[in-house]
Amino acid sequence: MRIAVDASGGDYAPYEIVKGAIKAAQSLKDKGVEIILIGKRPVLHVQAGKHLKKLNLSIVHAPQNIEFHEHPVEALKNKPKSSIVIGTMMVKEGTADAFVSAGSTGAMLCAAYLLLGKIEGIERPALGSIIKLTPHAPALLLDAGANADCRPQHLVEFARLGNIYSKYVIGVDKPRVALMSNGEEETKGNKLVIETHQMLKTVPGLNFIGNMEGHDLVHNKADVIVTDGFTGNVLIKAFEGLGDSIIKIRQVGQAVNSASHLRGRALLADVGMGHMVKGMDFREVGGACLLGVKGTIIVSHGRSRAKAMMNAILMAKRTVEQRIPQLIAEEVKENVSSVTV
Amino acid sequence: MRIAVDASGGDYAPYEIVKGAIKAAQSLKDKGVEIILIGKRPVLHVQAGKHLKKLNLSIVHAPQNIEFHEHPVEALKNKPKSSIVIGTMMVKEGTADAFVSAGSTGAMLCAAYLLLGKIEGIERPALGSIIKLTPHAPALLLDAGANADCRPQHLVEFARLGNIYSKYVIGVDKPRVALMSNGEEETKGNKLVIETHQMLKTVPGLNFIGNMEGHDLVHNKADVIVTDGFTGNVLIKAFEGLGDSIIKIRQVGQAVNSASHLRGRALLADVGMGHMVKGMDFREVGGACLLGVKGTIIVSHGRSRAKAMMNAILMAKRTVEQRIPQLIAEEVKENVSSVTV
């Protein structure tokens, strides 16, 4: 298996990205997984050079880099030698099985749509983000931000994509699929949600458990949480912000009073709050998987450091092992009728 | 000043509601505020009877009660002697200056629209909910759930309503008004948000600071957070759920290990986490104010106990003191042109 990593993408590139890739290569040693760093060879060689022989690690030169502020489509046109274009093309050509990047999400999405293309029958690929607000129960929320405006059939598609990912990557037997709404009753919601609810009830092979509300997120009510990319993105980032603050607060505690911090950390663990902090910490999750395109694309947080990148690479490995794009393609073929409701 | 309280509404009515009203009456003793309990007189008399003389507290009989599952409009028609109808009518007739209820939000909204009516020039009254995720900086989020489907001009209305409430009730000099979105740039958002952003830039007298993202909620970026009632409701409830869990976790900690709980509580306070828990705890805030109707209506959480009700009553007092409905009416008159964009 070959996993390509964008060593130029993200706020802490290349140093933290390379560091995370090395950690991943170490933890995957002798597991037949090659990690390919894509970026400026001379720079990468300085940091990773000495590991290239010992670890299953290699470098592919990408002289260009797409910045966050650039217009995605134009950037892809103007920078054919950028790490994002090269990494995505490697997946397309089969020289890599997955591509992980903490670079511009917009550019990543466009590259995936334009270069890899959507799986036949899929209208709107979605970003599936794993949240862990309850212990031992990671849930998949999608769309986490790929589609700000959605129609009911798109949300139904998200449900089907999430169902597959939850089943095969997260390992949930019969994923409970819920629709995020402002009320539990099927009459509650905005127009989009009310229409989607009626459609989801009719999807064969989907364990649709109805609407869920914001407070249900901490109650392990569902394994797959379906929502439009606008609401999903706002929600994911809200949790992220809270996670950051709690972590910062603990760091302040540490600075101010190391002893009380240690007591506090012990307490937080004691009473089970550790999982909640972790669940709100994108570093633990690693990245969101773009579901519905012809290939495995993991979009990591722009602020990803080594730990987040390592986790994103491990997530990519699991996704490739489970042949998610193929499973989606097969599932769509089987259910064309209900997809194109 | 007279504040009517729905003693029949909410999961813990009447006992906790009455208890909260008594606490409020005690804290408002000799401040010229009469608190009127609306509910089944015999029941209320048992609990509140002995306080009626000592405190500025009275009872108005309401033999009927609207349940959460009832259809709002029908319930209002079929139950003219319900606490919600009587309380709202008292505000309309001026025998009460405000009405506070933890009963059916749907019924409360319908009662306010149908019995009190909207302020001239206001198309969509909104629920303004105060969130405190940063110390010393409560922010007003609206719409918290009154309007699941919105058009840009509605969000502009929310911004104007929130601006007034933040200025006069929360006491912010020049409230920073932000639009919740999935990206900071004005090109980011769903269609609704992108159009709204352009309109908000043109509203005179509004300190519009642009889009904010979910993670900005903990960074005291804005004083007024504008969003549609669907997103707002999902967000508010998500924080509520997290607040509940953190509180529960601490209670578990207490049960398991009282010593570590005390240490932990001290630590959480030390390092400033107390405010965050409080900010996510609806008991501290009390209720959401329905802005844009002809009267002061406070919608409390269905799970409100005494503390939440007391805080909701104190919130009602501040809202009445500041003559918010009148200020909104005046402001709308002055700016009819921009309201009816």
Question: How would you describe what is shown here?
Answer:
The structure is a homodimer of 341-residue chains. Chain A has an 11-stranded mixed sheet, sandwiched between helices. Chain A is globular and about 60 Å long. In chain A, helix 3 crosses helix 5, helix 6 crosses helix 7 and helix 8 (229-256) packs across helix 9 (258-270). Chain A has 14 helices and 11 strands. Chain A is of the alpha/beta class and 341 residues long. Chain A has 2 domains: 1-120 and 292-324, Isopropylmalate Dehydrogenase (3-Layer(aba) Sandwich); 123-281, Isopropylmalate Dehydrogenase, CATH 3.40.718.10. The mean pLDDT of chain A is 90. Chains A and B meet through helix 8 and helix 9 of A and helix 8 and helix 9 of B.
Write the layout of secondary structure elements.
The structure is a homodimer of 341-residue chains.
Chain A: E1 2-6, H1 15-27, E2 34-39, H2 41-48, E3 57-61, H3 72-78, H4 83-93, E4 98-101, H5 105-116, E5 126-131, E6 139-142, H6 152-170, E7 177-180, H7 191-200, E8 208-212, E9 224-226, H8 229-256, H9 258-270, H10 274-279, H11 282-285, E10 287-291, E11 296-300, H12 306-321, H13 324-334, H14 336-339
Parallel strand pairs in A: 1-2, 1-4, 2-3, 4-11, 6-9, 7-8, 7-9
Antiparallel strand pairs in A: 5-6, 5-10, 10-11
Helix pairs in contact in A: 1-12, 3-5, 4-5, 6-7, 8-9
Family (chains A, B): Belongs to the PlsX family.
EC number (chains A, B): 2.3.1.274
GO cellular component, one term (chains A, B): cytoplasm
